[in-house]
Amino acid sequence: MTHPQLNIYRHDRGARALVTLAGVIDPVTAPRLRAALEQCLRDGITLIDVDLTTVDRCDDDGLRVFLDVSEHAAEAQAFLLLHHPSPQTERLLMDTGSDGLLYPMRPGGARPQRA
């Protein structure tokens, strides 16, 4: 059986990090994602931008990682922002009410509307 893969790329610019993800976020890959995002906070990053453009799927385990790290970031006066989620991931965020915590403002300041 082949395990899902998640590639994690990090690019720092001062106290800001761009974390680009590619692959699947599920129970197998979520611990690696958690470790990478928590490392950003330990390194003193105050704004973590997570690019989800090439994430094929994100399940509840991925959502839990984003919520937990967002909470830890807030405790450290830092922020976690998700960018370019797939329609499936956006729906997961909206259906769970997590879009307000994690979803950055769209151009013009509008947030996505719940269905």
Describe this structure in words.
The structure is a single chain. The protein contains four helices and four strands. The protein has 115 residues and is of the alpha/beta class. α2 links the parallel β3 and β4. α1 runs parallel beside α2. The radius of gyration is 13 Å and the shape is globular. InterPro entries: MlaB-like_STAS, STAS_dom, STAS_dom_sf. This is STAS domain-containing protein.
Low-confidence stretches: 107-115
Helix content: 25-40%
Order of helices and strands: EEHEHEHH
Q: Roughly how many Å is the radius of gyration?
A: 13 Å
Number of strands: 4
The portion of residues forming beta strands comes to 25-35%
Largest sheet: 4 strands, mixed
Question: What is the residue-averaged pLDDT?
Answer: 87
Biggest sheet strand line-up: 1-2-3-4
Strand and helix layout:
Layout: E1 6-13, E2 16-25, H1 30-42, E3 47-58, H2 60-75, E4 79-83, H3 87-95, H4 99-102
Parallel strand pairs: 2-3, 3-4
Antiparallel strand pairs: 1-2
Helix pairs in contact: 1-2
Domain STAS: 18-97
Protein name: STAS domain-containing protein
InterPro entries: MlaB-like_STAS, STAS_dom, STAS_dom_sf
Short note summarizing the structure:
The protein is α/β, with parallel strands linked by helices.
For the structure shown, list the relevant keywords.
single chain, 115 residues, alpha/beta, four-stranded mixed beta sheet, 4 helices, 37% helix, globular, disordered C terminus
